[in-house]
Amino acid sequence: MKLLIKVLCCLLTVITAFSVITVTAKAPETLDIVPEIMGVTDETEDTYLIKYEKITENDNLILYADTKRGHFALKNKATGYLWYSTPNDVLTDETTIGLEKWNTHSQIVVEYVYKEDVLSASGVNTLSSQLGVVESGNAEVKKSDNGIRVDYFFQEIDTLIPVEYFIDGDEFSASIKLSEIKEGKEIYITAINLLPYFGAGNSNESGKLLIPDGSGALIDFNNGIETSVYRKMIYGDNVDSVADVDNTKSEVIRMPVFAVIKENNTLMGVITKGDSSASIRAVNGNDSRKYNCVSSICELRSLQKMVMFKNSSNRREIGSITKWPENADCFEVTYKFLDGDNANYVGVAKEYRNYLIEEKGLTKSETTPSFSLDIYGAIDVEATFLGVQYSKLKSLTTFSQAEEILDELKAEGVENVSVRYLGWSNYGLLNKKLPKKAKALSKLGGNSGFKELLDYTAENDGILYADVDLLRFRSGSKKTVVKNIFNEVAKHTERLRSVYAMKLNIDPFMYLSPDKISEVSDNYLKSLKKQGITDISFSTLGSYCYSNNGKKNTFHRYFFALEIEKTLKNYKDNDFNIALDDANAYAAVYADRIYNTPVLTSGCSIFDEEIPFYQIVLHGYTAMTVESTTAAQEYKVNILKAVESGSELLYSAMYEDSSVLTNTRYDLYYSTNYKLWIDEASEIAVRYYDLLRKIHDKEIVSHRTLQENVCETVFQNGIKVIVNYNEDAVTINGKTIEGLNYITEEGAEE
User: Fold this and answer.
1) Are 19 and 12 in contact (CB under 8 A)?
2) 467, 424 in Cβ contact below 8 A?
3) What is the pLDDT of residue 20?
4) Distance between CA 50 and CA 28 in Å, rounded?
5) How far is residue 467 from each of residues 114, 377, 442, 534, measured CA to CA in Å?
């Protein structure tokens, strides 16, 4: 027996030396075993086998990979937990059907269109790396010091796509080398889904998928909902095409982050390069899908349609393809591995905030907690004189009337008001031409009147942001506008609330070509400085992301965020305080205050829970408001959303009677006459701002759902807020919370 033991020990030593088994600390007193795929039998085809070997390791991670097929696994050395690029039990999957079955085996999925089919194509083709590369033995794997490079050659479409996978500290990155892609002569690549099933949870696991749709959404593992795959562009859709009728109200993904949250272990991904041209894809477990997963897609081109002979029997659609993002180097996603108490959506928010601090320059703003107020200045309306139609300005709130509103709020006990003055310059609320000068409208009181209002707000510990829209306009040079691939000017207008169809007989918006943004914003900055204005609001600059697909000024949205960052940095360097509206992450880091932060999700059927992820990321660093309470469909819920996330309240105000908006395009502001809401708002604000003063600059350290429609938020100083969204009262830990109300508790500072 002793001899047998010695022989076995010797064999183990030899095997270890040849790296078939690597010995490192998985956890105290255990061996680190090279991962193996489950479900392998004598009948398993070679192309489905995954044979891992240790590639590299550092103090935090071990990277294993199959050097023939390109699959990999990552071990978190702190916990011993393994994350697989494709599900480790995929060979036992008898649930997933259709093309999705191939995706579960694949590292990338390519979408493409044959060039000869572009004119008539109704959609794109897809080809997975398992079917298009591994099956034919065309994956070439090369080792490097900190990872591997896999060249995926899709023989069917004669296309090579190189991807690098590497570890750095406690992070893992996957990078599609866009500049090195060799595209087949017969196809156009439209998109590449990177690691569609990395970290997927199977039908036996519990967990959630985090999607930053709107304020933030969670999808429960295996929720069983039969629905299409979730897929949405980050930072919103392009503006060069729009449907005639759209009966959906959809929120935007404002942050390029996602996560697979399992018990005690979470995989989060941040799109660190190419986020402006990315979308997020999520799949839930149900009767036709075994796995739950979330991933990113690099959107490179789009297939666009134009309708010819629209109103005739010869109606016909023709297609065209947008251009490749020239000079784009790579599309990169960086992953982090969270465990223990950090393995939840608050932990993900914390890590993403750290990324914004370390990589994007997010700092704590020095704003004081405020009652936020949108004041509407002037509008343009249609009028006639001697039978001739013309446009004229109509005042909604003059500068002196704005001061009256602020005086009344002060008398009601509301202090520290942050005002965003919309429609104070140019053509009022909506641009006709792009603004060139920061000049106050004489209809409202001119530059002197505006200066008096600036002084008044400062003397009363408030702030006045002069708002400007630098992206949208209704008339002007067509050389600077966004066009679609058919070289048509992209035009947008408002929709009727009843049927969501476009309003007729209203001049639509056009959009400034991204390559002209810096020029327009720089000229406007000079004008602001001459007026002595240092507090500026950009109502659109931080909330859009789009391409220009016209023949001239072609610009791919891959580079859009860089243009906005350059513009906002210029204003910051010139000592401006910046307010934004519903800001995308790349812009939010420059904002002192963000108005109208998202408080809801798109309400997709795949979602199970709504969370204030956006606010958890930024709270304590940037002042934020909820949407305007005067515009909210459920104003009490909107107020509670502010309390839950520690955000400022926002109201919209005009001095004139609402009847002046009748039969104008501005009827959506009908309920904003300040006398309609000032008494109730003041009462709410006085109560809430006693709390807000204590928490406005504190991070959110915990957030959870206690029971249906009851949420708890804990701030850095230990203050706990419990919000009841139910109509009826609830009892939590012996304390009663009335319907549509909240309570607070003091606690120990963290």
Assistant:
1) no
2) yes
3) 33
4) 28
5) 46, 11, 17, 12
Nearest to 510 by CA among 478, 547, 551, 546: 478
CA 352/CA 334 separation, integer angstroms: 11
Sheet of strand 463-468: strand arrangement? 623-624, 593-595, 577-581, 535-538, 463-468, 417-422, 371-376, 650-653
Q: What is the pTM of this model?
A: 0.93
For 9-62, the pLDDT digits (tens) are: 443 333 333 333 333 333 443 446 789 899 999 899 999 999 999 999 999 999
**SS3 category, 82:** strand
Tell me the backbone φ, ψ of residue 90, rounded to 5 degrees: -60, -25
Q: What percentage of the chain exceeds 90 in pLDDT?
A: 82
Residues 6+ apart with CB under 8 A from 175: 163, 164, 165, 166, 273, 330, 331, 332, 333
Domain boundaries, the chain: 698-750
CA–CA dist 400, 261 (Å, integer)? 53
| Burial class of residue 320, CB neighbours in 10 A (0-12, 13-18, 19+) | middle
Exposed, middle or buried: residue 275 (CB in 10 Å: 0-12, 13-18, 19+)? Answer: buried
pLDDT digits (tens, 9 = 90+) for 694-745: 999 999 999 999 999 999 999 999 999 999 999 999 999 999 999 999 999 9
Q: Are 62 and 32 a contacting pair, CB within 8 Å?
A: yes
- Does the pLDDT of residue 396 top 90, yes or no? yes
Assign 40 to helix, strand or coil: coil
Those residues with Cβ within 8 angstroms of residue 411's Cβ, 6 or more apart along the chain or in another chain: none
C-alpha span between 577 and 232 (Å, rounded): 32
- DSSP H helical segments within 98-226, as ranges? 99-103, 129-132
| Length of the chain measured in residues | 750
Residue 568 sits at φ, ψ, to 5 deg, of -70, -35
Q: Determine how β-strand 371-376 pairs with β-strand 417-422.
A: parallel
Using an 8 Å Cβ cutoff, are 247 and 241 in contact?
A: no
Beta bridge partners of 292: 201
Strand order in the sheet with 53-57: 53-57, 61-65, 72-76, 81-84
- What would the pLDDT profile of 689-707 be if each residue is shown by its tens digit? 999 999 999 999 999 999 9
Q: Which backbone phi and psi does 505 adopt, to 5 degrees? A: 60, 30
Three-class DSSP labels, 336-357: EEEEHHHCCHHHHHHHHHHHHH
Closest of 331, 347, 329 to residue 339, by C-alpha: 347
Which H or E run contains 408? helix 399-411
**Is 358:219 a contact under the CB 8 Å cutoff?**
no
List Cβ neighbours of 92 (8 Å cut-off, separation of 6 or more): 38, 39
Question: CB neighbours (10 Å) of residue 478?
Answer: 11
Lookup result for tokens 């992301």: 545
230-233 and 609-610: which strand pairing? Answer: unpaired
